[in-house]
Every structure is written in C-alpha cells, then in structure tokens.
Amino acid sequence: MKSLLALNWKMAPEKPTDAIRLAKSVAALSKKYKKNISFIACPPFVHLAAVAKASKAFRVGGQLVAADSTEAQTGLISAGMLKASGAQYCIVGHSEARARGENNEVVAQQIARLVEKKIIPIACVGERARDTQGWYLSEVKDQVESILSALPRAALRQLVIAYEPVWAIGVRAERVATPAECREMIIYIRKVIADTCGAKASESVTIVYGGSVDEKNARTFLTEGAAQGHLVGRASLDVKRLGALAASLIT
Ligand code: 13P
Questions:
Q1: Which domains does the chain have, with CATH numbers?
Q2: Are 113 and 73 in contact (CB under 8 A)?
C-alpha cells in the first residue's frame, strides 16, 4: 500500500518564487516515488493556487478554513475558495490552530464545511502532555469523537487523521514520539472510531503520524508505529531532507 506524505509548510516560504521552486521539487519526488508514496503539499493559502497549478504530479491541501461560510469573515478563507484554488485536502485541528483558540466544536464545523465542498480533511489530534494515569487518552478521544460527529459515514473512508502529540511538534518539541507510543495511540484511535462507527469503518480511515518527523525516524513509524504515512513540518521545507526522507521510506 502507498504511504501518504503530507507536507505542512506552515508559514513558509515567504516568496511565491520559492513556493514554486519547492513545488517543482515535490513534483519530481512524487514522480520518482509514484508507486510507493502519495504526496500532498499544504502551502499557505497565498501560494495555494500557484502550487496547485505547478504540477498535477501531487495533490494540494489548505491549512485553514472558515467554520462558518454564511457570513463575511474578514481574513478567513472559505471551503469554496480552497476548492476553487485547487485544494483537495485541508489540515484542520492542528495544535497550533487549537492554541489560537480553535476548539473541538470549531474543528467539527470546519470539517462540515470541507465535506460540503468535497475536500478531504486531514484532521489533527494529539495530547498536550502525557501522564502516568492515561488521562491523555481522554483528550484524544474527545478530539476524535468530535471529528466523527461532523462527518457523514460515507466521508469516513476518505478521512485522514494525523496523530500529532503536541510535545513532539516543532522547534520546542521535547522529543519525537517513539514508534511504540505512536502504535499504542493509533490502535486507541481506531478503537474510538470502531466504538462509534464500527470496526470496518474504523479500518478504512487513514491514520498518519506527525511531530519532528525526519529522514532518520520516518520509516519506523510505518514499520513499527502502525502509521500509514506522515505529516511533516520542518523537514518538508528542505528539499534535500525531503528527498532523503522519501528515499528512506522505500528502502
Ligand atoms: P515538525 O515536523 O516541524 O515538528 O512539525 C510537525 C507538524 O506540526 C506537522 O503538522
């Protein structure tokens, strides 16, 4: 089965020319590894249309969507605009957006807007911290249940859930998760989905890992961590590292 490699470019690159250059490199990698890896580039909205036009070799996703498209919202982007700009996916529920105030209810509304426009959500879940009693599991359970509450059953098959423990993300990460920690949580997420939607539906959801993924650790999340792909931040902006990461997945 192909693994999914979703690239979260966050607030980079600054210049449109650099975004196009990066997109061309992603296109080259996507062609090279087309049998094994499905690439999804998620640029900032300002570059989305240009990146989507740069190549048909990979798919493109947004990083934000308005929860309510019925009223004018200064500064926000509607699901319809994402669609018209070429997005087939959109990241929602990222911990950086949650830290800005987007709660489970908002994330559920965003998912509903995406589904209306047939855009596939890449829905992020993950605990802020781990404890020894397993309370962190209930934080993730609530996130998963609210995602499910917004999805018609028919859309479940396409759903992508990204397990991203907050403590493993970005320059302030404590450390990367171990494959065992990832595996435990992915099994738990599947159980939560199965309890609501049934075992068959649960198996149909794609679950990927994100948080300090790089060329050295990526493969073990597939082989030992039960992940079906990755959501990559920093390493997705460096063409050499991204190339090495992609190569590491198939050797
Ligand atoms: P890093 O890979 O930079 O830790 O970011 C992970 C992430 O937030 C992807 O969505």
A1: 3-248 (3.20.20.70)
A2: no
